[in-house]
Specification:
This is Isoprenyl transferase. This protein is an alpha/beta fold and about 260 residues long. The chain contains 9 helices and 6 strands. It binds 3-methylbut-3-enyl trihydrogen diphosphate (2 copies) and magnesium ion (MG).
């Protein structure tokens, strides 16, 4: 490997990186192969990038694997993807890298064997502590937010039945309450969102959580996304000033 011409600040690696892994299909089509060939290659990238994130000290890696809207793809592509999820979960990647696995999304829509394997992997890796890999499967942010609102009402109704509690009013609704009902409540918001494959959109991913994430887009198709590309994204992140609405001067003062 040639020496890179940049230097990452290892003390300021994003704690949480979210990735929209896009471009598998185009990568395969360019090679005159079926789209599933691209998804297969994409699994290898997941392995490489997971190991590298662990090595760099990233604590949470959230991967957009299959969106609610992806259910509208041809049936053979969907079943190839489900098959890949099953085999990828057999992988030693989690135990070898001390990675805890979690899934978010509407997993009730997934085939039984996939759903079972997901739960098994979550249990099997629950004590791993180097990094948490979160796979967003049958996920979309609007689905997640809608579900959160339904859960808030349902939980309140249950409590209301049991006690002399007041009905749910607008005063009960806080950002904290909504956040607690997001599927991602067990982790901090993403610091950095990367999208590969050249599209400049977020495609219904983590809309609530990325309010203040730094966004990074690159042309590289996901199967070609290298450790070096990951470093470039992190470097871009490290060169930015996160202000969270404050002024540059205020942020500089707080850093002292
Ligand atoms: C991303 O790659 C993976 C999934 C959505 C499952 P695509 O399959 O969207 O690849 P392109 O965008 O068609 O190249
Ligand atoms: C987003 O990619 C979903 C995943 C990467 C899983 P898509 O390829 O589905 O997004 P659009 O349709 O181009 O917006
Ligand atoms: Mg795509």
């Amino acid at each position: 490997m040639t020496e890179p011409d940049y230097k990452l600040d290892i003390d300021h690696v994003p704690q949480h990186i979210a990735i929209i892994m896009d471009g598998n299909g185009r990568w395969a089509t360019e090679r005159h192969q079926p789209r599933s060939y691209g998804h297969q290659a994409g699994v290898d990238t997941v392995r490489r990038i997971t190991s590298e994130c662990v090595r760099l000290g990233v604590k949470y890696l959230t991967l957009y694997t299959f969106s609610t809207e992806n259910w509208n793809r041809p049936a053979d592509e969907i079943s190839a993807l489900m098959g890949l999820v099953l085999t990828a979960l057999e992988d030693e990647i989690f135990m070898k890298n001390n990675v805890r696995f979690r899934v978010i999304g509407d997993i009730d829509r997934l085939p039984d064997d996939v759903r079972r394997k997901l739960r098994e992997t979550e249990e099997h890796t629950a004590a791993n502590s180097a990094m948490t890999m979160v796979v967003a499967l049958s996920y979309s942010a609007r689905w997640e937010i809608t579900r959160a609102v339904k859960d808030i009402i349902a939980e309140h109704e249950t409590r209301f039945d049991r006690s002399s509690h007041h009905p749910l009013t607008s005063a009960d609704i806080t950002e904290e309450l909504i956040d607690r009902h997001m599927q991602t409540h067990f982790m901090p918001d993403p610091d950095l969102l990367i999208r590969t494959g050249g599209e400049l959109r977020v495609s219904n991913y983590l809309l609530w959580q990325i309010a203040y994430s730094e966004l990074y887009f690159c042309e590289t198709y996901w199967p070609d996304f290298s450790e070096d590309d990951l470093h470039k994204a992190i470097l871009s992140y490290q060169r930015r000033q996160r202000r969270f609405g404050k002024t540059e001067a205020q942020v500089e003062e707080e850093r002292k």
